[in-house]
Amino acid sequence: xxxxxxxxxxxxxxxxxxxxxxxxxxxxxxxxxxxxxxxxxxxxxxxxxxxxxxxxxxxxxxxxxxxxxxxxxxxxxxxxxxxxxxxxxxxxxxxxxxxxxxxxxxxxxxxxxxxxxxxxxxxxxxxxxxxxxxxxxxxxxxxxxxxxxxxxxxxxxxxxxxxxxxxxxxxxxxxxxxxxxxxxxxxxxxxxxxxxxxxxxxxxxxxxxxxxxxxxxxxxxxxxxxxxxxxxxxxxxxxxxxxxxxxxxxxxxxxxxxxxxxxxxxxxxxxxxxxxxxxxxxxxxxxxxxxxxxxxxxxxxxxxxxxxxxxxxxxxxxxxxxxxxxxxxxxxxxxxxxxxxxxxxxxxxxxxxxxxxxxxxxxxxxxxxxxxxxxxxxxxxxxxxxxxxxxxxxxxxxxxxxxxxxxxxxxxxxxxxxxxxxxxxxxxxxxxxxx
Length: 435
Fold this sequence. Notes:
Blueprint: E1 7-14, E2 18-19, H1 37-55, E3 66-70, H2 82-89, E4 99-101, H3 107-120, E5 126-134, H4 158-164, H5 170-181, H6 185-204, H7 206-212, E6 216-221, E7 240-245, H8 254-257, H9 259-268, E8 291-301, H10 302-307, E9 314-323, H11 333-343, E10 353-356, H12 361-371, H13 393-410, E11 415-422, E12 426-434
Parallel strand pairs: 3-4, 3-5, 10-11
Antiparallel strand pairs: 1-8, 1-9, 2-8, 5-8, 6-7, 9-12, 11-12
Helix pairs in contact: 1-2, 3-13, 5-12, 6-9
């Protein structure tokens, strides 16, 4: 029987994150409202290969065995196995295969874990794990809608109807968690505000920020202030212009620069999923933002990295998944994290970074309560999380994995754990060691 190989991370990049919003509405439109999901994914695939080539001239992309891409709404430009399509659009070698992964919000981290475990058992020495989601173009659940003959109609069958009749929106689940644990609105808002403060500090550390965030340049049709086409006078054709996005659009610096003003603003927000008079606590200020983005991670066997003279950033120690109760749905990361820690023969006290996905503040507080650390423990999402930066569903697992890896490396820290909740009660976790 072959001995398991060691899997290491040699490069990790992401795009800036853009606010979601329809292309036709300037007020609502985000930075990537006219940028395709394929362009976002192509950007990070090219960047991760180019960055690795710069570090090692002997690196040959043809040796990349596979590329797994997390994506929730596999529809339209995100359909047709967007992993393989983006590889071809990026001009990467045809020898690289490609598969698109859907485990709800867990999808990106599942892509990483799948690649890591393939390397560990000897199925190729080099893999790319990536994630992408354009929530501007494809809203959550759009992949479950029937075709154009019945637009807006969800899949329907007796079995589906029986299951779905019990399911509530995740925001309602977040309210249920607050009820279960007795969290206050003030605690949730403090956590949300804290996420923005950390993300703001991380963005202002430009030297480190731009090591992991790569610019996205794409073409868009030029319009005036009223969203009317700007045409070339000589040809009558609409002008096409290049747009370059370099920074996250979502982080609110007011929470760091003027905490009193920020607290006043976050406190005024109305609950979204349960009325205030009925005890609602979940607001836009303590929930993840709906956004667009992509990220990629390059994984290798330690043997291959050494052969190429590449210094690893971290190594994968363990992975785990778990299912949970599908109505409250957001607590499955608790058993997943416990399994991953046990498999790594470590405890939460050993961790230098704890990276829970901030789908909502309440499950993050629940994780802290169950594992015995404080809500505002400085180890929690030290560069900010999805409340501040955003939650582009299929990409989030890779985005925040990369944030964790870079933080460990930049600060000479040793251990980190990432955990994520997902729809219908799925959880996932990964433990890493910084190198």
